[in-house]
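Continuing the batch. This is chain 6 of the set; chains 1 through 5 are on the previous pages. Same settings as before, nothing changed between runs. Recording input and output for traceability.
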Amino acid sequence: MRPAFLDAVEFVSLPLPMGERPFRVRESVRYRSIVLDRVIHVPAGYRTDLASVPWFFRRIIPQSGRYNNAALIHDYLCDEDPKTCDHKQAARVFLEAMEVCGVGRIKRQAMYRAVLWCGPKFKPKDKP
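Output for chain 6:
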């Protein structure tokens, strides 16, 4: 099995500032991850800001690009409750999904490291 988006991803732009996640997923999205050995389900209506890139890096890496779908999956893994993976696994899924999206190796590695080092830190919640 190979990692893959199992559904087409369509974003609806909302008239909101970036801090309020102005992109909504029109239909649910499934992504098959080899890193997590499962299918990730992002529900219809989930909102994202795509890639959270600090303003001073946006000339090099804009907030949207070929990596939009990968950013959606990473945002969802950061938000899901209860958490099913830790931040390092979520970063590896982001890397994996960027490759599926056709993001070049150098940009992929730079974005992966930025998320790993500067992104939110979390651990999976214990099952009751």
